[in-house]
Amino acid sequence: MSKNIKTPTNQKILTNVAVVRMKKTGKRFEIACYKNKVVNWRNKTEKDIDEVLQTHTVFSNVSKGQLAKKDELIAAFGIEDQFEICKIILDKGDLQVSDKERQAASDQSLKEVSQLIASMVVNPETKRPVPPSVIDKALQEMHFSLKPNRSSKQQALDAIPKLRETIKIERAKMKIRVAIPTKEAKAVHSKLKALFSEVEQDDWQDGSLEMVGLIEPGSFRALDDLVRNETKGHGRLEILSLKDVVEGELQIS
Amino acid sequence: MESLETALKLAAASKPAEHIRNVCLVAHVDHGKTSFADSLVSANAVISSRMAGKLRYMDSREDEQTRGITMKSSGISLLCEPLLINLIDSPGHVDFSGEVTSALILSDIALLLVDVIEGICSQTEALIRQVIRNGQVMILVINKIDRLRVELKMSSSEAYQHMARLIEGVNSCISQVLGGIVLEDDTWGNIEEAEAKLHFDPAKGNVIFSSALHSYAFGCEDFATLAAEKMKVEKSILLPAMFGDFWIDSTGTIRDSAAAKNKATMFERIVLEPLWKLHDLGLVDNDVTSLSEAAKKLGFTLKSRRANEAFDELMRSWLPLPKASFRAVARAPNVRSTFETQHRLDHLTGHRLDHPLRPFVLGCDSTQITIVFVVKLLQTEDKSLNSRRAICRILSGTLRKGDKLYVLQQHGSSEVTSTKIDRISILRGRDTIPTDTVTSGMVCAIDAEILLQNTTLCSESDYPCLKIGSQTGEALVRVSVSTQQLDDMDELREKLKLLALLDTSLKVMELENGELAMVTAGEVHLQKCIKDLNDLGLVDLDVSEPIVPFMETVIEDVNLSAPQITEQETDCRIREALHIKLRIAPLGSTVIEFLDKNAILLSAIRRGEADQTEIDDFQKKLTLICTESLPTLKGTWWYRKPKDLIETMIERIWAFGPDRARSNILFNNVESYDRDLIWRKTEFGVRRYDQALVGGFELFCNSGPLCNEIMHGVAVIVEEWTVDEEDGAIGGQMMSAMKATCSAAAKKLALRLVAAMYKCTVTTASQALGKVHAVLSQRKSKVLSEDINEATNLFEVVSLMPVVESFSFCDQLRKFTSGMASAQLQFSHWQVIDEDPYWTPTTLEEVEEFGLKGDSPNHARGYMDAVRRRKGLPTEDLIVESAEKQRNLKKNK
Fold first, then answer.
1. Rounded to 5 degrees, what are φ and ψ at B139?
2. Which residues form the Ribosome maturation protein SDO1/SBDS C-terminal domain (chain A) (predicted)?
3. pTM, whole model, 2 decimals?
């Protein structure tokens, strides 16, 4: 037996390590956690800390096995208790996202996008909502990929025009009532009409105007501005429904 | 064959009503309906009589043949001079009870088959009830009597006792059903009279003993004739004594009380002893020579060399099954006289005594106006949707090919549609024979452009339609379907629509998120529907896991003190514009039950169509029930509230729940706000946005806080509501604000899931009993009773099982018990799951007992999470369950 080979008796080899780092007072502190567990701890679905932390000690370098110095810890955190410091680092430190965590997050946001789209569009023929499962399939067919740095809503809005090429959908419209007093009614009418995509009711009563109709959700802001500014606050705008769809369950047979 | 066809055509066109009989076969699953039908069919030489009982001719679907159960009702017209018999075979499995209903509507006579060993089963009882209600005539067929000898080795006296007990059982079942009906409906008159008319007695000729497998059947009179010849006694003297406690002495006189004197009864002596002897020779001892000697004595020569074949041959020719059955059928009322029974006619005309079609139906005259009742749509081979085929019954007049008939409306409405009959065909089981004319009383298939289930076609337009409400059981198994190719979705929609027309128990829905869903009666039914879709050309289907409906409710919490309950109110403020303050309280089981019962009235009130006197009556009853039950609900806000407060609250009810979730109430407890009362149709006016608040309440009722399922039995009590009516933007937010406030308030109470329960009846051999219990407890079912059937030595275990747990239960049961147990599931009721879905161990003792994670799984939580996952709602799922058990390898290993 060679002299060089030693059997380590007092070493604990950590496997499956996910490192959470934190820099404070110019020093780097690390803790050793299990993979795929830190995100669950942060969103409070994992409550058992021993399922998250491999050991209750704070390191300066986990992979080399160097422990953090006591005085440095006190200088940085003001306390000595390693366990408490672990918790602070766990909550605030930089995290190395593990494979399954990343997978779950991207699944989640893909689902979010398709749910968002499903909530925004209707089938133009039946005015019925489009199921998320259909949107999912259509997104897959058009090779939609997520961009992690953009919000789900933005991506959903971008995807809708492209989806239109493959399936029959359109943005669900808002149903709105506008009431304009006599003085301003004439002047605003044509501008209002341009914003509506469908006018259901166009009532002139003693010179004042009441309109009910559908608008594209995108033009709501413009309409709101118009009513507020042009009528000097006398006009009224009321949302009748956010989404003009045939709701509820429908028996086909 | 050719001549038979022409004879049939001629008969269908010209048989007088007295010679037509419409018969259907009904029984519990596996009691031998289809085998019995085989033998009857063989009488018309469609199939060889040697194959009768084995071929299952009426089961034309492939999956019916492989599974060995019937799935649809199918008909065949049989010519048996002078009679023309329309025979309808029905499925026995509980999932297909809708098919049985339509088979029963078509026919006047029900052949009720009962397996002599298994006796009365759950479906038998349900069928008896249905047949009596329809006012039809029943003939009891005691089937599989060969099993008594061959399997159970009963002696003739034992067998007699057994059969006598069975008939008594069926009769007592009839009495029970009758008692219930008479209590509900006093038009049935004297119970004894009705009983006497319906009770079975072999001497009366309405009981047939048969073995469909060996294709023989007999009534008492068969043997009475034989015995009369032999003993030189008048047949009319023998017949009344054939079945009963009578014996015959050596001089040939009939005496009674055979059991007391320890003598063999006449039935044993004359019927069973010779019969058992033949069974012994043919099926037990396999003795061909003795068998052919016995046959020679009876006047038959046997050709077969094997004992069992020879036995079949002998029995077939000696006691042919069709002969006995047709004789009993001939004695039963024909298509005209059946309507002389008042209930039969009442049932058809929807209990309207002044229905203008009544005289025509009663007359059943082929020269009168034509009335056709369409009962069941059939699948046609050619896939063109323009023409539909349906089984129908001609109630009056004569139907000719090319006739133009009107589709009758409910109240003789002005808009009358008419349709042309493209084709008429006589039913022949698997195929049909086209013909040109059919006379009144016939059951046949017609092709026409407009055909809908349960509609009446008539040659005159100004009559109201006939009404037969085919009640189907609560449909519970719901799956969403979609195609893998997006382009096929429209096709799927069309095909589903078509399928729902063909199959009454299938409902097709579009869910609120736009998905297409099939609602089926059970698991077997679901598989059949998917098979049908595949046959219609849709192969790549995505069928979701079964979606089981749940309900959500809040329950009383007895541990809470009064101040704690008062604190359960919830505030909602949006800027300065809106302030809502409300609380939520449970309604208690008595009130919920009352609301459920009056569901139809409630929706009438919502639509403003209800009768004022009915509303007043309902309000009075509701007030009474509430003042009695609510203050006794310990642990709720209602506890010990004064009576007059509750009375005013009821008076000021704001709204009831929406159609899907009616048993919820919105109370107006805002002191400063008087709105018009829902009890009266006055124009008192409501505050602006009032409807938005109700809308929010309805949203909440439709999707509860646990997993967006409907709420059940919840009171929302609004205590304060101020709104700035000038703020235009508040209108859009009001609904969602109300919904969120309700949800938040509900979360302060103990929320529970309400699950649908099946009543599960398992029949099992005793050696598999332990395994059955293992499977049952795995499915979280609660055993109610466990009885042994003396005759069969089979155990019957009745239990309650949550519907969620029931999927592939039957398969698993069969696997675990090696096929020794079988189960039937039927919807029973809704039940609150007494487990808090949010429960976690909190105190030290609890942690000690259950562990930090709660080692025993929380079922309610499991159900809730499953629903949430399906709906895409967030769940508290861990990415990895236990940190130490992750695989320590690289991804590509």
1. -120, 130
2. 174-242
3. 0.66
